[in-house]
Design brief:
By secondary structure, this protein is mainly α. The protein has 3 domains: 113 residues, no CATH class; 131 residues, no CATH class; 180 residues, no CATH class. The chain has 24 helices and 3 strands.
Length: 589
């Protein structure tokens, strides 16, 4: 890594005094950054479909002090590089690259100073879950050859080292008063139990043994199966067992009863960082809290209008309870019926999207049920495909009991997680080879989730929401994201308890407190992440309204969507400036 950074420093001198006529050196700098970045974050290479053998055997120990120091060095080297570039001489796309990279480096450098490395395990989004998903053989690691299996054993050794560092960090964190909420760690213990079991039929870590690579001789298959099974038993299972034992026997007793991080040592600063990182703004937590309260009031009025439209008598709470419980909204008997219902929505949308978008993804797309080992704690989600088409984009649907799966949220959920939400945004960026690699693959929460939430509002224009209960589903989704602004800031900046957050969510969204548990505990585990959705959506709505007002008859919706999508994920301030340049250019200014 040091040699690579030194060679980058040499490249910096070549970039000094860069002129518009020659952006080659600047593009070379961006490519070099992406290469150095993947050396530190090799799992992202797998997510991006990069099968470079330098990355395929590695699981990064990204919570170690030495790794954090390397991240700081990376950021400082490339910030110095950008400072030597004359931004005014760059093309528009290169200026966007400059500004986006600068923001990313500054926020990443700041991340290394926060307290999160001392609390690296949670029930919602943590490496013990990511590793298990990769180990299943149906995720991003390529289990296509014998080498692919052996490479994953290399990753397993790295994950084992990560577990030991996590335990050491958690022990140090506990001594400093930095622990996770006890209830979250109780959830983690339940997740770890099946992953530490020597049960080839049920433990997902053994799953790749059920589909060994084709083309091997019987002897080769037998040898590979034996080697891989031994790796599972001697590396993976013990790692999960060590983590489980530490949490059960030592950590759990030291865990806190509070829900937010604000009162922890360094917690206020960590939350302020998370807000900046997840919203790409300088909004203060209190500003976001008040914005959330305002949105909750607005959306509630729209829900009242739908209730009046369908003629339901009673309070809004009664109406939402009816929608949440009436059998007409739970028509399914099997997982496959649910998946087919989503595929039917896909067909409706795809018949209309050419009217809204100049560019459609080339990447394939699939709807799948979430793996059973994580379905209980998972939300519906999108996993990106690869630019070369070797892996499709996947909309994962968590299904526990198909007979309990309800219909009113299906259309807006599909718009958000699948088409034209995450699949369009991610795929179009990946496929745009005119962008430097870091922009094709990079993302920020406010842009990515903001775009996806914005697409939910396109439902009527796309021919959906013809059933008022599906439109109510969109409002429920919008309310859910507005509640997040209130609850996340309430938990982490205003000292709310878990119970306060549960009660607020239940009252605002309808239903019972128990229906809020998974979401509220998600916010507890990942401070600030839930804020990006609504902040990003409101910014894109604002930009569309601004463009419609300033361009008038010249406004073209597919053109606008091109401005949002075709330059990849931009921080919101960078996106705002970019769209305004487009407006000015098309309005004759």
């Amino acid at each position: 890594m040091l040699k690579r950074l030194l060679s980058t420093l040499l490249l910096l001198s070549l970039c000094a005094g860069l002129r518009a006529a020659d952006s080659t050196a600047f593009r070379a700098l961006l490519d070099r950054y992406y290469d150095d970045y993947l050396a530190l974050f090799p799992i992202e290479a797998a997510i991006n479909g990069d099968n470079d053998p330098r990355y395929e055997t590695v699981w990064p120990n990204d919570i170690s002090a030495s790794h954090r120091a390397k991240v700081v060095s990376l950021c400082e080297v490339y910030l110095a590089a950008l400072a030597k570039v004359d931004r005014a001489t760059l093309s528009e796309t290169d200026r966007l690259s400059h500004d986006t990279l600068k923001w990313s480096l500054e926020i990443r450098r700041e991340s290394t100073q926060q307290i999160f490395a001392f609390m690296p395990v949670n029930q919602f989004s943590a490496p013990h879950l990511t590793f298990a998903q990769m180990a299943s053989g149906s995720s991003v690691h390529p289990f296509k050859t014998a080498l692919g299996y052996r490479n994953f054993l290399g990753r397993a050794r790295g994950f084992s080292a990560w577990v030991d560092t996590a335990i050491a960090n958690m022990r140090e964190g506990a001594a400093k008063g930095l622990t996770q909420p006890r209830i979250l760690m109780e959830r983690v213990l339940k997740q770890l139990e099946p992953l530490m079991a020597d049960a080839a039929d049920t433990n997902i870590l053994f799953a790749p043994l059920k589909k060994l690579p084709v083309g091997l001789t019987a002897a080769e298959s037998e040898a590979l199966a034996k080697e891989y099974a031994e790796g599972v038993r001697t590396i993976m299972l013990p790692a999960y067992a060590r983590l489980h034992a530490y949490i059960r026997d030592e950590y759990l007793a030291k865990c806190r009863e509070t829900a937010g991080i604000g009162a922890l040592p360094g917690g206020k600063e960590a939350y302020a960082y998370s807000v900046r990182a997840m919203t790409t703004t300088n909004l203060a937590p209190e500003e976001i809290h008040q914005l959330g309260l305002k949105e909750v009031t607005r959306i509630r009025a729209e829900m009242d209008a739908v209730q009046a439209q369908v003629g339901f008598k009673g309070t809004l709470a009664d109406f939402l309870a009816f929608v949440a419980s009436d059998p007409q909204f739970a028509p399914f008997k099997t997982d496959e019926e649910i998946l087919n219902a989503y595929r039917a929505i896909e067909g409706q949308i795809m018949a209309q999207v050419p009217k809204f978008f100049h560019h459609l993804p080339k990447s394939k797309f699939e709807v799948r049920a979430t793996e059973k080992f994580r379905a209980a704690t998972a939300s519906a989600e999108y996993n990106a495909g690869t630019a070369d088409g070797s892996r499709p984009g996947i909309f994962f649907v968590p299904i526990l009991i198909p007979q309990a799966y309800r219909t009113p949220r299906m259309e807006d959920l599909f718009l958000h997680e699948a088409l034209p939400g995450h699949h369009f945004q991610v795929s179009l960026a990946l496929e745009n080879i005119a962008l430097p690699k870091f922009r094709r693959y990079d993302a920020n929460n406010a842009y990515v989730e903001g775009w996806a939430l914005y697409t939910e509002s396109l439902g009527k224009e796309l021919g959906l929401y013809t059933n008022p209960y599906q439109y109510l589903g969109m409002l429920l989704g919008d309310m859910h994201r507005a509640v997040r602004l209130v609850v996340d800031t309430g938990l982490h900046a205003k000292g709310w308890t878990r119970e306060q957050a549960l009660q607020y969510g239940a009252e605002a969204e309808g239903g019972t407190v128990d229906k809020q548990v998974a979401e509220i505990e998600r916010y507890m585990s990942w401070p600030g992440q839930a804020l990006g959705y609504k902040i990003g959506q409101l910014k894109i709505r604002e930009l569309r309204h601004r463009a419609e007002q300033q361009l008038g008859a010249k406004f073209n919706l597919p053109d606008f969507h091109d401005q949002i999508l075709m330059e990849g994920a931009l921080p919101l301030a960078v996106l705002d400036a970019h769209v305004q340049e487009w407006i000015d250019a098309n309005s004759g200014k």
